[in-house]
Specification:
By secondary structure, the protein is an alpha/beta fold. It is built from twelve helices and eleven strands. The protein has a domain at about 5-165 and about 195-225 and about 275-295: Rossmann fold, CATH 3.40.50.720. Helices cover about 40% and strands about 15% of the residues. The radius of gyration is 19 Å and the shape is globular. The model has no long low-confidence stretch (mean pLDDT about 90). GO terms for molecular function: aldehyde dehydrogenase (NAD+) activity.
């Protein structure tokens, strides 16, 4: 592999994927909308070439993809823009792969699975989404599979990590280092999983580098499941201050949704906070290797340190 295009290179997962690729000596084209942000992150990395562009502009994407072997699609948009933009973005990523005879690797979530069955979900479970967003994700998957490109799709649980700015767990952790009362979204008694973005990036790059991984879906679970209350205890031990937050429940999100489009669209996904999906990584470990699994205490420590640094610089 000579050159990889990472779409969404300034996002929480895209940024970690670029870092993981270049740590392995692989040349990367980092693509995102904001040139200043790209320069800020990557100007000192000699293996990264930055390309500023818009995923909705096919020429921008095609120009960035020239000469690449693999295209990694880690772009996401706010919930309220999914129907309008995600299909265009996916079609442009597919077109760029076709034009360059490149492989396409997609960072995906768990929405298309629908409700869990209280067991760890394997890749061969039929997807039966019951939400609008889950159905969109399944449609996008079908678009990829019907395109004839060489693809792989990796399903991840909720993210957290040093640069996962829009992740729900980061929302809580950021409020811990800020001056306001900490806030946590969801039921703190429910066992859920959150994947540390550097772990997710390592697993993703391992898949990208494996010829056998293409033409398949892959589940990438977190280190383990954890409750919100356990997270609060970890935060207290790391910060020496009360980590117990205000609990943001479904009713509160519905109220916020009256004035905020993203929160209004998030309501239908709140079932994941009461009936969480937990992914089974058996296939990955059997066919690719050991999954990276950073313990929550270490991951939260690193995330808090990064958030403190961001808070200090702002």
């Amino acid at each position: 592999m000579k050159k990889v295009l990472v779409l969404g290179a300034t996002g929480g997962m895209g940024r970690e994927i670029v870092s993981e690729l270049t740590d392995r000596g692989i040349e990367v084209i980092a693509f995102a909308r904001k040139k200043e942000r790209l320069i800020q992150i990557y100007e000192s990395n000699r293996l990264v070439k930055i390309r500023c562009g818009d995923m909705l502009n096919i020429q921008d994407v095609l120009e960035a993809a020239k000469g690449t072997d693999v295209i990694i699609h880690s772009v996401n948009v706010p919930y309220e823009q999914w129907q309008e933009k995600l299909f265009i973005i996916m079609k442009h990523a597919i077109k760029a792969a076709q034009e360059n005879n490149a492989k396409l690797a997609i960072v995906d979530n768990i929405d298309a699975y629908g409700k869990g069955n209280r067991e760890k979900l394997q890749e061969d479970l039929p997807k039966q989404p019951h939400t609008k967003k889950g159905k969109i994700r399944l449609e996008l998957e079908n678009v990829v599979k019907s395109s004839k490109v060489s693809y792989l799709i990796a399903h991840f649980p909720d993210f957290y990590g040093p640069h996962a700015e829009n992740a729900l767990l980061n929302y809580y952790l950021h409020s811990v280092v800020g001056k306001k009362r900490p806030m946590f979204v969801g039921n703190p008694n429910v066992m859920r999983e959150y994947i540390y973005t550097p772990d997710g990036a390592k697993a993703m790059v391992n898949l990208v580098l494996s010829e056998a991984a293409y033409g398949q879906n892959w589940n990438i679970p977190a280190a383990e499941v954890i409750t919100g209350n356990q997270i609060f205890q970890i935060v207290e031990s790391l910060t020496n201050k009360n980590g117990k937050p205000v609990i943001v429940n479904k009713m509160m999100i519905r109220m916020i949704g009256l004035f905020n489009k993203t929160m209004r669209e998030a309501v239908e996904m709140l079932y994941l906070m009461e009936e969480p999906i937990v992914l089974d990584g058996t296939k990955y470990e059997r066919e690719i290797g050991t999954l990276p699994k950073t313990p929550y205490e270490a991951g939260i420590r690193e995330t808090l340190a990064a958030l403190r640094k961001t808070e200090k610089n702002n």
